[in-house]
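# nightly structure sweep
# worker-07 picked up a monomer target from the shared queue
# config: single-sequence mode, recycle default, output format = C-alpha cells
# input follows
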Amino acid sequence: MATASAVGLVSCSGKKKQVVPMNQSTMVASETAVDFRDEHFRFSIRGLDSKWQVVDKERRLAVAPESAVAVSRVGGTYGAVVVEPVGGMELEAYAELIRSNYAGLLQDLEAAEPRKAEIGGIPALQQTITGKLNGIELDYEIVSFFRGDLGYQIMAWEPRKEADRGNLTSFIAAVSLDEGEITFPPPDTLPDGIGVGNRVLNNRYESAISRLAAEPSGPWGLMWGASLASTGEDAEIGLARPDLGLYITVASEAVDESRREKFVSSATSTLVEEAEIKGKEHLDFAGTPFECTRALVAGEMPIEIYLGNFVRGDLGYQFKAWRLQHKRKDEPLFDFLKEGLKSFSFLDDAAAEKLRTALVASPDSFGAVGEGFSVRGGVYRNFGAGIAWKRPAGFWKFHVGDQARARNEDISFQAMEIEKGLNTQLLVEDWSEGDATQYHEAAAAALEEGNFQPGTKVLPPLVVDGQQILRSCYVLQAEDAVLEYHLCTTLKDGQGIQMNTFAKVEVMEAFPKLAEECLTAYTFPGDSLNSSKTSGGRFHDLRMGFQMSLADGPWTIAEQPHPVISKLGNIVSFTGQSGVVTHFAIQTDGSGNDASFATKMMENIFRVNLNRSSTEGSTSRPETIAGLPATVRSGASAGTHMNVILFQVGGVAHFGVIVAKNEKTADKILKDYIAGFSLVP
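# output follows
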C-alpha cells in the first residue's frame, strides 16, 4: 500500500495496512501544468489545469512511497497511480479488497457500490469512498483494472467540500494508457533520516538497539519510515522487490535465556486460522542460520508467507516474508529470499556504540501536531486536558492521535522506550461519580473485567506536580509473557486521569526507576497550558513552538483557521498600515524530506501570491533568524513587493510572508520580523 498526506493510498500486497498521518504536503501549490509519461508502466497524465504539479521524488517517498507517480493541486487535492503484481483474481474481488483496506484505515467510512468503467478499452471498476482520517473528512475516487498480471489503481482524494468532486474526476480522466512493453523501474533510494534509535544514511539502515544493518542492491529497495508503515507491519526495517510483489520485514526484541526456546517456536503464532502450513525451509541471516515455516493463506488473492524467529545474544529477531501467489507459481521464490537476505548484516560493538553516541546527540526528530495536542522536542502536550509529558532519557517512540487510538480506542497518548519495552499510556475522561479513591476503584474494576489480576507488589501513592497519584499493581498473562501493569490515577478539574505504565514483569523488575520516571514525567499545568495566545502585541504559539511581535504598530494580530492546515500547524497574520505579514508554522515529517518540501513550498507561496508561473526574476539570499539558517526570496509584481523567509527547526517548517507596497517597506518589515521572532522550548 502506498500512503499519502491526508489519506492512505491502498495497494493490495496481501495486507491491511496503516496510513501515514496527514502532514505538510496539503499546503503545496503550484503553477506548473502536468505532462507526465511513465515509460515503465506505460501510462500518461495530461490535460490538467495549471494548478496541478507532479510531486517530486523526495516528497513522493514521504507521502506516497509505493506509487509510481503522485500529483498535487492547489487546495489539497491529490492524485496518484499505484501498480502492483496481483494477477490471478477477478476484478470485482480486487475492488472489494481495496474497499476493505480503506475500511481498516478510515473512520465513518461510506462506500458506494463499484460501477463499471473503462480506460483505454480495458474494463475497470470505479468506486466512491468517503471517511475521516485524523478528524479530517475526505473524499476519494478510485479506478481499478488489470493489465496482464498487474493491478492498476488510479485514485484521487481531497478534503471533503460542499462543491462537486470535479478535481477528483479531472485527475482520473487525465490518465491514459500507452502502448509498449511494461517493465518495473529500479527501486527508489531513500533520503537520509533519523528514527528512534536508528537511521538511514546513504540508503543504508543502521540500528543502535537491534544492531541490524541493511544495504540493498539490485532490484531490492529499503522500506523504512513511511514505506514501512504502509505495510501495516510493526517491524523496524524491511526490504521490497516491487516487481515480484515480495516483501521482507524484520523486528527485534529483548529475549532472556528463559524465553529463548519459546520465542523461536512462536514464529507462526501470528498466522490466521485459514493459513495452511506447507513445510519448513532453512535460511541464513547474516551468518545466523534459522528455520522458517512456509504457509499459504487461501482466498481470492492467495498469500505465500515465510515466518521464522531466531536469537542472537540477548536479542530475538522476527523474520517475515510474503507475496501474493501469482499465476506464475514456478518462480523460485526461495532463491529470491536468499538473495534479499544478503542485504542484512550486524554492527559490531564499536560501530553500534559509535552510532548510539551519534543518535543520542541528535535532536528529537519526531514531531506531531493534531487538534488539541502536539509533540515537540520530546514533550507531549495535551492542551484540552492541560497535561504534558516529557520523555525520560532513552529511545522513546510516541503514538498520538489516531495512532494511539489504533492501539487502544480510549487513550490519547502512548510512549514506549523501545530498547527496554517499557510503556506509558494516558487516558483522560470525564468523572463526576465520586472522589479520587472511587475513581481509582472504578478503573481497577475495569482492569479486572479485562482479565487483569491484582499483583503482590504494593505501590504507595505519589505526589506528582502537586497531584496525588493513587497506584495499584496488576499482572496480565499474555500469549508469550506476563505483563506487569501499574494503574496510576488522579482527579483534576472534573477529569479522571490514568497515567498507566506497563512492561514485561522482568523489565519492570530490572528498571523500577524508569517505571517511576514515566509517571513523574507528567505535569498538570491545566488552563495555563494554552496552545496559543496574544498579549501586549506579541503572539505566542506553544503548540508550534514560537513567539513573535513586530515593531512600528499598531498591528492587528489574528489566527487564520483552516479546515485542513489548522490540524497540522497554524497560520497567524499581522495586518498594519505599512503591510501584511503572514506566518505559517507547519509540522513536517522530521526526515530528510523536510528540506525538499520546505524549499518547494516557499517557491510555491511566492509564485501563487505574486501570480507567477515561476520564480524567475526574483532574488534569493541566506539569512539567520533565532540562530537558525534561513533563506529569503524577494520579488515584485504589479506594484506589490514580497519577501518570503523560510527556516526549519524540530520538524516544523516556518514561513514568513511579508507583503508591502514597495521594496524599502518590505525589507524594513522583514528586519523587524527577524528581530521579533523567537523559539519557545
